[in-house]
User: Fold Xaa-Pro dipeptidyl-peptidase from Kribbella jiaozuonensis.
Amino acid sequence: MRIRLLVSAAAATALVAAAVAAPAQASQQATSAVPTFVDGLAQAVFSTNPADWYSGEVWVQAPFDSDHDGKPDRIHADFTAPSEVLTQGLKVPVIFEDSPYYAGTADEYSNWGVDHELGAPPASRPRAPFWAAFDTSPVISTVYESTWVPRGFAVVHAESPGTGHSDGCPTSGGTNETLAAKAVIDWLNGRARAYTTKDGSTRAVAGWTTGNVGMIGTSYNGTLPEAVATTGVAGLKAIVPISAISDWYDYYRANGMVRAPHSSSNPSGNNNAFQGEDLDVLADVVYSRLDETGARTICQPVIDDIERHIDRATGNRNSFWQERDYMKDVRNVRAATLLAHGNNDFNVMTKNAAQFYAALKKQHVPHMFYFHQGGHGGAPPDVLVNYWFTRYLYGVQNGVERLPRSWVVREAASCPPRQTTVAGEQSNTATLGVADTRPFRIGFSLTVPQTNADGTISNTNRLITKIPDSTHLVLASPVATAAGQRVADGATVSLQCSNANPTPYAEWPDPAAGQAGLHLTPGAPTRGELTFKPTKSATETLTDDASIPAITSANAPSSGVRLIYQTPPLTKPIRISGTPSASLQLAFSASKANVTAALVSYPPTGNGTILTRGWTDPANRLSDWNDAPVKPGKMYNLNVDLQPKDTVVPAGNRLALMVLSSDRDFTIRPTPGTQLTLDLSHSSIDIPVVGGRKALADALN
Assistant:
């Protein structure tokens, strides 16, 4: 499932780590190291040789019995620290990742069927057959050790309940999973017991740590840091949640609608491996207890109970879902949070990041948001993570709290210039003389044009490791090292927009963003217009057909399956920053229907792109918790929140609102034929544009 993305994101972070904080000593160091910080960053001065590290495994006693065997569950964890914790009595902070994925996931499993009438889901689905899990003892994972142990941190991994060598049962975001990770932090702070074996009585004490903990991870592994932070547990000083869920209802549901996550950042109608997934499926897939061989039965009653409570018939929120809503407890968060998410993450959708981040801002919790243009996964640049953990785990006053709060990876076509010129011809050097260093930052990737011996020019990239003064950049390794190669006097060096070089903004959403409201004029079955002027009375009708992908409908010149309303071409680019929303007045030919709204960007030629989408069940127009009857033929006001977005729409493009019923990629797919009638005079879309209504109006003149 999502583990492959998790590993790749973590590995990408590790690849750049050594260059930002280069080792000061080889692994064969003769003397003991001490934590060292340069330019506010932890330096890799401790041994890089795993043979030198202090490692072990423990089983932490949790305050629950989720497998109902009459004994408190024990949670399997491993740890790795610099050897100086033994030889010198050094105490170090901890980088902690908790996950249900370490022992693997089921190769074969069944999602719920989605081709059925609304409110009539299948009665059951097949359980995953037995599969062989990876042995996670004595080493659970090594994904962060090479980055953080040489910098003077310990690394701890723990297996979620019901996975690997941990007791208990998986619950897909249930309270026991939160408390299991919390128990590990309690053990690191001397408040919980741990044992050297799963069933033994020999105690293990974490005397090698300061008790300051930072949690990090991607997807499920990023969700758990948010969950644990909402407990307010003492010792959890910082979290770096990447593509994290803040409310499991918003992961598998949308405003009363059963709505699946998507396995692709480019939904096409038939490429969603997660269509039909739900809480019970995920628990089934990660259930990997290694003490069960031949068949896993201990947790089947727990998974059956999950199935009974998910309610795929109505899609309503209930107490079962509410247990998995971390937003209800977000007021307890004290951990400094460096949040990361992808604009095009249709797996864990951006609402999860935006609502958690908004709460942190309101509570004045230290916060920062890295928002890239990719899909699921994608860690912040290593330099930002290093700043964050150095500041909040070691207490080094490195000024990270004074940096911009928002770091958005800009599209290549919208990349702001961050460049200077080279001062004098240079070759075979890691210290580059330049006209001005102000556009640059330590830890970012500099693009350097090298003139080759034959006169051709080739670009190379180097991390900036130090900025000693206003005219010199120190790079991770020399440039222009080949025979006859040079960096020419006056050549332009720059920061190209990429995941390594996000663009800083004061905050997110951009403080200058304001909602720009647009109204609808008729045009079906082709396209109507979006205009600032309210529309006179008019209605248009579409007919549901879940067999047609939304992107196909968006790009069809004429269609009865959707309604589209577009602006004139933009005369200048606009930046969207925030949450678009559509206000729709609709009538339905049936008592049950899906409603989907999408914001589309159409280039001057070629196909359009769906920028963001939103979904709602008209029966939940008043509340996620309860259905209100829908009377066929009666108009109802529906508010549809689309997924939050930060994107620049280029000049020449048109913005459009598309309204359709079922969304093949995400929703239940009933029999075609239900008609939706839209009252244009009482419908509109609000788009959060930097500069507000005036900026959009200027771009449409």
